[in-house]
Specification:
The longest helix is centred in the last third of the chain and has 17 residues. Helix 3 packs across helix 4. The chain contains five helices and no strands. The N and C termini lie far apart (58 Å). By secondary structure, it is mainly α. The protein has a domain of 54 residues.
């Protein structure tokens, strides 16, 4: 096996590091023998609040459905949106498999 002779130097500041990487390739310092798969299972996606206008009767129906499933109506709306996006992408099966959300499981049980 080839030994990696290239060691990334210690940099005093970002400017020094920027100059170094402008003239060197990261591939010269990359050793694929030490690759390990990692899982960030506790990582939560960042959320952004949006405002959406819906007919009052649609919100009432969503609240009724959410009440029957004993979940917040906004959470149920997110589940419906995620499922429809997965369906449009053609990846609904993968969405269902990886979904560990109890709300989604409850929704399909009813």
């Amino acid at each position: 096996m080839k030994k990696m002779d290239n060691i990334i130097p210690k940099f005093k500041n970002e400017d020094e590091e920027r100059k170094f990487w402008a003239t060197h390739s990261p591939l010269d310092y990359f050793d694929s023998r030490n690759i390990k798969r990692v899982s960030f299972h506790n990582l939560k996606p960042s959320l952004k609040s949006i405002s959406i206008r819906l007919p009052e009767d649609m919100i009432a129906e969503l609240k009724t459905l959410a009440h029957k499933k004993d979940v917040p109506y906004q959470s149920l709306a997110k589940i419906y949106l995620a499922r429809q996006i997965a369906l449009e992408r053609g990846s609904l099966g993968a969405f269902i498999k990886k979904s560990k959300n109890k709300v989604y499981a409850q929704q399909n049980a009813t």
